[in-house]
Amino acid sequence: MADPALRNRLKEERARLGWTQADLAARTGVTRKTINTVENGVFTPSTVLALRLAQALETPVETLFWLEPGG
Asked: In terms of CB atoms within 10 Å, which of 1, 12, 46, 48 comes out highest?
């Protein structure tokens, strides 16, 4: 059985607030590239970063991130 994939609504939640990747990066203490790689599923954020992102976006972490079963 394949490992589940971490999915996110980071881009949608960021857009809801009218923020750029750079805006969110500044609010969470990471680079714009980090935000980009998380949004695109290239990088899995640490628990601390996932919580910071959820807090900055004013959304529950489980709404922002979820596991999609592997194939």
From this structure: 12
53 closest CA partner among 16, 18, 9: 9
CA separation for the pair 40, 35 (Å, rounded): 9
68/6 Cα distance (integer angstroms): 6
Which of 63, 9, 3, 2 shows the shortest CA–CA distance to 41?
9
- DSSP type of residue 58: T
Cβ atoms of 7 and 67 closer than 8 Å: yes
DSSP string, 17-55: TT--HHHHHHHHTS-HHHHHHHHTTSSPPPHHHHHHHHH
Place of tokens 């979820």: 66
Structural domains in the chain, sorted by start? 10-59 (1.10.260.40)
